[in-house]
Structures are given as C-alpha cells and as structure tokens.
Amino acid sequence: MTMRLRQIFYFFLLGMFVGLSLSGLIYWVITSIWFGLTITSWYELDTPKLEADGLLQHKTTQGRVARNHLTGNLGRTDVASVTQWLAPIVWEGTFDSTVIDSIYKQQNITVATTVFALGKYTRFLKDFLESAEEHYFVGFRVHYYLFTDQPEEVPNVKLGQERYLTVKKLPSMNRWQDISMSRMGILEKLIKDELASEADYIFCLDVDTKFHGRWSVESLGRLVGVIHPWFFDAPRFIFTYEHRPESQAYIPAEEGDYYFTGAAFGGSLKDVHHLTKTCREQMNIDIANSIEAIWHEESHLNKYFLHNKPSKLLSPEYLWRDISMSSGYVKIIRFSHVAKNNAEVRPNL
Ligand code: UD2
Q: Which of 8, 48, 71, 91 has its CA 20 to 30 A from that of 191?
C-alpha cells in the first residue's frame, strides 16, 4: 500500500513537471512570436523610406511614426520631447500626422495668422504667402491678417479654398525696433476687437521667413512657444535674456527654462491676448523708465513664458536659422528665417 502510494505520488510529480514544462514552452512560443512581430513592426516603421519637402541630409519617417507597441512611446530618444512641466516639445517623429489631422478635421477650426511687413519688408511677402499656401495648415481654414504701411505692395498670391487674407494699413515707422515691438499692442487689439468670433487659434509670425515643410495641427495648443534655433542646444548662461533689473523683461541669471524666439508664437485667442497685453504693458513701463529690453519684445516674451509656461513647445524645426544650415537633431525644416542684409532692409541701424 505504501509502495502504491509512493508510485502514485511519483506519477503525480512527473505529471506536474511535464505539464508545467509544456505550459512554459507554449507561453514562451506565444510571447516570442508576439514580441518578434512587435520588434519587426517597430523596426519597419522606424526604417526611413520617405523623402519629404524641407528634408535635410536625413531621411524622415514622416507620416509613418515609429511606435514601440510595447510602451506606446513615439520614436525620438535623441531629443527631449517633453518639458519638466509635462508640455510636449514637437519634433519630427513625435506625432502621427494622420491621427492628429483626423482629430482636428472634425473640429472645423480657423487659424488666424498675423504677419507684419512695413517698409522694405514687403519684399518677403510673396515667398512667405506662397510657401504658406503650400505647407501651412494645408486643408484647414486659415485667415491671414497682414499689417503693412503699403497695401499696394501686397503681392497677388492665389489662395486655396477656405484661405483668406485681410490687409490692414498701418502708419510707417522710423525704427525697426518700434515696428517689431509695436506688434504686441496691435495684436492685442486685433484679438480683442475682431477675432473673438472669427478664429479658434492664432499664430503670430515674422515675415522674413519661408515654409519648407509641414506646419499644421500638431502645433496647436493653449499657449505655444518656439525654441529659438540659435539656443536650443545651448546652456542657460548663453541665453540672451534681459539681465538688467531695471527692465520689466529682467530674468535673473539662475532662472529660465528655454530661450524662445519672438518670430513665432501662438495659441488660443484668450491666452495670446493675455500674452500680448502683458508684453505691451511691460514694454510701456520700460518706455516710461527710458529702457529698452535687449531683444525688444522677444525679451518680454521670454519673461512672459518664464511665468506663464507654454502648454506646448515647438522645436527649432518650426523656425530654423537658414535652410542651408543643418543640425543632426533637426530632421526636417518646416519654417526658416531667410538671410537678409539688415543694413539694407531696415529703416535704421
Ligand atoms: C528677432 C526676432 C524677431 C523680433 C526681433 C526683436 C528671430 C528670428 N526674430 O529678429 O521676431 O523679436 O528679433 O529684436 O528671432 N519688420 C517690418 N519692417 C521693418 C522691420 C521689421 O515689417 O522695417 C517686422 C517684420 O515682420 C519682421 C519683424 O518685424 O519679420 C521683426 O524684425 P526683424 O526680423 O528685422 O528682427 P530680427 O531679425 O532681429
């Protein structure tokens, strides 16, 4: 009897051993196949095949974002794609254009876009508008508001469907610094008086620029800043913040997160209205105190963003230095500054 019991016990142990081994084997086979497929699909997606407009020496995964199915992460590990306050930083490879387009298509949005061209800067309008029609919020409703002292110099650029242009006349100004700074007050007024029922988002852009690649709904957010192309990979002590305490734009040496360009910013009407109003008020205080911030309204914008953190940051793909200059991180140039002879185009030095 004892012998019989022992035999049953050994059979039971053997059965357990074989059963567990078999289920382990089955589990291993299933997970290997699944994991292998995941790796393969990630690898295939990450393998650049498409060339896109605005491309530098790299190939891009535009439209086929590399996605690791295991973690859900999109595929950039060489650059930060989120800030310390959890705002996304938009780089090529961090979003899926098909998915994001389909979300905004259902929302019937209008993007107001402002640009100023006074004096000789009207020469930049043709390229700005033509390239915007090719790359900027294509397929979405865009209303350009163009401020100029010479409406007769505005080129006749053919606009696509649901694309509108309103020209607004301004008096000429003698100092380029005044032109640049006055934009804040003019935008504040435009948003308050005219845009409330006309648009959902606004972007305010420099005119001596050109679009080379997609700039679209991935850039939309409550408050959006663009990282300055000269400083995106520089340490804070290099940032050209205003360091004189007498100016309202003053930022102490140990403060500041990013250095933002004044050439492009945007967001919801409410947030951009608050931004432009605050910067205009701060600049007026500086004028009363006979001080002008080192980089004019750009210095005030940086001060504003220090205390009112942008909800989304755009990488320097959204304002590059010049199409001819490359950087390993910038895989696509979407929008760039154009080279200009300041002494020749500005009304003063
Ligand atoms: C930087 C900023 C710019 C602004 C300026 C303030 C970048 C790329 N740009 O550019 O946004 O903050 O510093 O110092 O960081 N304008 C005219 N007519 C003129 C002069 C200027 O229409 O005679 C307008 C035009 O829209 C131009 C903008 O003002 O794009 C800014 O002037 P800028 O481009 O000459 O200033 P810049 O290159 O120093």
A: 91
- Using alpha carbons, select from 195, 327, 183 the residue that is nearest to residue 264: 183
Model pLDDT, residue 254: 97
Which of the following is catalytic: 242, 298, 317, 344?
298
Shortest-distance atom of ligand 1 to CA 345: 23
pLDDT at 27: 64
Pairing status of strand 141-148 against strand 163-169: parallel
Tell me: the pLDDT tens digits for 216-260?
999 999 999 999 999 998 999 999 999 999 999 999 999 999 999
Residue nearest to atom 39 of ligand 1 (CA): 295
Name residue, tokens 């980089």.
295
pLDDT at 28: 61
- Which residues, other chains included, contact 223 with Cβ-Cβ below 8 Å and sequence gap of 6+? 267, 268, 271, 272, 275, 308, 309, 310, 311, 312
Kindly calculate the radius of gyration of the chain based on its CA atoms and give it in whole angstroms.
27
Cα–Cα distance, 13 to 24 (Å, whole number): 16
Q: Which atom of ligand 1 is nearest to the CA of 148?
A: 22
Q: Which residue has the tokens 């020496």?
A: 57
Contacts 24+ apart (CB under 8 A), 10-15: none
Per-residue model confidence as pLDDT tens digits over 17-37: 666 777 766 666 554 444 433
Instruction: Give the residues of the chain that fall short of pLDDT 50.
Output: 1, 31-53, 55-64
Q: Are 346 and 121 in contact (CB under 8 A)?
A: no
pLDDT reported for residue 76: 87
